[in-house]
Specification:
It is a single chain. By secondary structure, this protein is α+β, with helices and mostly antiparallel strands. It has one domain. It is 18% helix and 23% strand. The chain contains two helices and six strands. Strands 2-1-3-4-5-6 form a six-stranded antiparallel sheet. A hairpin with a 2-residue loop joins strand 4 and strand 5. Helix 1 runs antiparallel to helix 2. The radius of gyration is 14 Å and the shape is globular. The termini are far apart.
């Protein structure tokens, strides 16, 4: 029997189902590591626009659910209040987007472009 896996969703459509994919255990470990390195944020993410890219969600059978958008990641668990962390460089958001299979994001509907690397 295969262990339950976490499922990611890209919130990009308004009239049809959003793309979903499985996040594997090794990818989840990396995302959790990034999460623990992010500083606390006093606030939740900004409201997303009604159309276009509206963030990424990662839901796990454990009851943990992360939502990444606009430089903030929110972790919600089955019990307790949500936790918000600042993701100014969008490390968590980009790492979660990178777990998606090719062509999940329609052109122009993914996370904002990464800034160029210095050097």
């Amino acid at each position: 029997m295969t262990a339950p896996r976490c499922r990611a969703t890209a919130h990009v459509f308004s009239g049809r189902g959003d793309p979903e994919w499985i996040v594997h255990e090794r990818q989840l470990e990396s995302l959790r590591r990034i999460w623990t390195q992010l500083p606390l944020s006093p606030s939740a993410p900004l409201a997303a626009p009604p159309l276009g890219y509206r963030g990424l969600t990662l839901e796990c059978p454990s009851g943990e659910s992360w939502f990444a958008y606009g430089g903030v990641v929110t972790l919600t668990r089955a019990t307790g209040p949500p936790q918000h962390r600042r993701d100014t460089d969008r490390r968590f958001e980009y790492a979660l987007a990178d777990t998606a299979p090719p062509h999940v994001f329609p052109p122009g509907f993914g996370p904002p472009a990464r800034p160029p690397r210095p050097g």
